[in-house]
Amino acid sequence: MSKRSSQTAAALHRNAVAEWAVTILLLLFGTTALAQPFVIPTGSMEDNLLIGDHLIVDKLAYAPSGSLSKYLLPYQEPKHGDVIVFRYPGDLTQTYVKRLIGMPGDRLKMVNGVVFRNGKPLNEPYIFQKLPYDAERDNFPSGLRMVRQELALRLQREMLEQNVVNGEVVVPPGHYFAMGDNRDNSEDSRYWGFVPRENIVGKPVLVYWSYKATTEELLGNSADSMISHFVDVGEHFFTRTRWNRTFMLVRGFPDAKLPDHALPPNTGVANP
Hints:
The structure is a single chain. The chain is of the alpha+beta class. 26% of the residues lie in helices and 22% in strands. It has helices spanning 3-29, 135-138, 150-162, 189-192, 215-219, 223-240, and strands spanning 35-39, 53-58, 83-87, 95-102, 107-111, 114-117, 120-121, 164-165, 168-170, 175-179, 195-196, 200-210, 248-249. Strands 1, 2, 3, 4, 10, 11, 12 and 13 form an 8-stranded antiparallel sheet that branches. Strands 7-6-5-9-8 form a 5-stranded antiparallel sheet. The N and C termini lie far apart (40 Å). 27% of the residues are buried.
């Protein structure tokens, strides 16, 4: 093994150790300033994150590091390919999870379902395209359909009016562009604009439980719907729990791992 290969292997080993160390710390401390639980209520990140995946979110991943803590925990800035959890700009009471596609200064467009960043197509192995081509959905910023929610529509219009240069959206300073892996069914930055840096809560690190449920069951706010969901879990816990996803680590996909060739469409499965 060459010296460079040995260094790469050692770096990967250190990263794996760091990931598990952070995960164990988060599980030990529970819901604190370090971590919080989060459940995936929609299919925008399928088939990588599924409806009913219960996650542990590392809230310190992107936090400013202290003089001592920077040596103990792997702080970092958000980067391309990270899966991030953030407060939805259209309604700060809602929390979303998407993949970070654009950083400040990036130029982005989407042509026939392919994302171009700074003039180069992204060959993204993590995305799923489950529906036939749609010009309004698969081209950006041209051909983009408008949204109905008032604040989201305003944010979308501001992005299209103020941040489009030569047919590309330019991500402004202090903001990020996030998209779902299920590109055909994701209300993401294409529809409501950029994610401010201060909105980013953290990143998911672990699926601690995955239960096959519907969006309606997970988002129900009434007492009846909550009771109904608890009863359902009690009756079907063993049969609807996706045991193969228990304690599954959630990892980003850095630019260095993106293939340099186009990939065939990945349609995933109908009901994962």
